[in-house]
Specification:
This protein has 145 residues and is mainly α. It has one domain. It is built from four helices and no strands. Helix 1 packs across helix 3 and helix 2 packs antiparallel against helix 3. The longest helix is centred in the last third of the chain and has 34 residues. It starts with 16 loop residues before the first helix and ends with a helix. The chain binds zinc ion (ZN). The site of zinc ion (ZN) has 8 residues, from loops.
Length: 145
Amino acid sequence: METSITTPTHETHSESLWTLVLRATKLRCPACGKGKLFCGLLTMNDPCQECGRKYEREPGYLLGSIYVNYGVTALLVLIMYFGMFLGTDLTGKQILGVTATFSLLFPLWFFRFARAYWVAMDEKFDPWPNEAEAREMAAEITKTK
Ligand SMILES: [Zn+2]
């Protein structure tokens, strides 16, 4: 019986923040910059098909991207609100309509990018594989030999 084991092909080091942001914006793997993060509209290529980097390192790991999505949406709504309040003649109800519609639609579009930025931030502060993950992978390789 043949088992495929993913082993990291990249050295554990942290890329520059700029590189990680650029890779996330292009929806690419933060570790190698080559693998595509998503294979469908919402489905992730996990692990990376180029370097084996695991994105969902433990159950619920990617839920943190909700904070990214919420934060960016809230910031943009704030800027839009003051922009329209101070720069246009729109009524309060019109401004509410525009910002409410935006705050419902934008997070749906931004979902993939929020995940990409979350994974990139994760790569910056806790590059994969960390010590425990490396031990776990080594144990799995030993077990199957
Ligand atoms: Zn990769």
